[in-house]
Amino acid sequence: MQPPCSAWAKSLLNYDGVIKISGESEVLLSIKTTEARYSKLEAYIEEYHPYDVPEIIKLPITGGLPGYLNWLDSTTGKP
Known about the structure:
Belongs to the CutA family. This protein is α+β, with helices and mostly antiparallel strands.
């Protein structure tokens, strides 16, 4: 089953200057959280992800629908 906030993806791999497309399917997952909870989330993903170096990218939330941002704060709880 695919999580609702994800998409199937293929990776481009670079081994010693040779670029190839990975034969394995991956799931691109978008997770939203608050700044206060980010460090714990990153540590959890890094610990349990099967890759030695998973792709974890932090993007700032610089704005958005106020109702959604309030919901995000209320549902993520205190760190």
